[in-house]
Design brief:
This protein has 209 residues and is of the alpha+beta class. It has helices at 2-29, 174-177, and strands at residues 36-48, 57-68, 72-81, 95-99, 102-107, 114-129, 132-150, 153-165, 179-191, 195-197, 205-207. The strands form two sheets. Strands 1, 2, 3, 4, 5, 6, 7, 8 and 9 form a nine-stranded antiparallel beta sheet that branches. Strands 10-11 form a two-stranded antiparallel ribbon.
Length: 209
């Protein structure tokens, strides 16, 4: 039942992304469509909390993906809890969490040096608690800004909420594993082609990367 809820949540987020993409095809992408326009990869660094103990934990990750239509990134990623986290109400139990999601991100007016972006990561993961291991399902919607430092190097600053489902370890509920997070991304790669924007007289105006 919990996995079903996660599926419908992910479906709703993907539908929203699809709607936004359709709008951008009319105003930014124009006649280019959603063809392959770049390849990107990099690292992600999260500050987040588990449970209600108020402790901040560090999560590190990475990603690789393909850019389409100068706006949509589709790829794969991984995250891993880096801290030696311990629950306040449980003693002498080593805790670890990692997940490997599909990555979807959409940038608005990417030709600008600073521009907004939204995204969602969703996929399976694993929780280790002492000698017990359990499979989970994670959905992470995000929203924030991306800064074009160089053509080949971008910095992303965003935040979101981590929804965790399917946890069956005693003492660790889905709610305790879920939580808000802030995230910085270091993005390396290359994007080719030009941006096309329709003007009032229907003549396209080009924007260089």
């Amino acid at each position: 039942m919990k996995h079903t809820k996660s599926f419908f949540l992910a479906l709703a987020l993907l539908s929203s992304l699809n709607s936004l993409i359709a709008q951008k095809e009319e105003t930014v992408v124009g006649s280019r469509g959603l063809g392959l326009s770049g390849i990107w990869g990099g690292s992600k660094h999260q500050l987040t909390q588990f449970g209600n103990n108020g402790k901040t934990s560090y999560v590190a990750g990475g990603f690789f993906g393909f850019e389409f239509g100068k706006a949509l990134l589709v790829g794969w990623g991984h995250y891993n809890l880096m801290d030696e986290f311990k629950w306040d109400n449980i003693e002498d139990q080593q805790f670890d969490m990692k997940w490997n999601p599909m990555v979807l991100a959409y940038g608005f007016k990417n030709y600008k040096s600073i521009h907004p972006q939204i995204g969602v990561d969703l996929g399976r993961g694993r929780v280790e608690f002492g000698d017990v291991k359990d499979r989970i399902f994670v959905v992470q919607p995000t929203a924030g800004l991306e800064i074009n430092v160089f053509r080949w190097f971008h910095i992303g600053l965003d935040g979101g909420y981590r929804f965790v489902n399917d946890s069956s370890i005693a003492g660790l509920s889905d709610q305790e594993l879920s939580g808000w997070f802030g995230q910085a991304s270091l993005k390396f790669g290359f994007s080719w082609g030009r941006y096309h924007k329709k003007t009032a007289n229907s003549k396209p105006k080009n924007y260089e990367d």
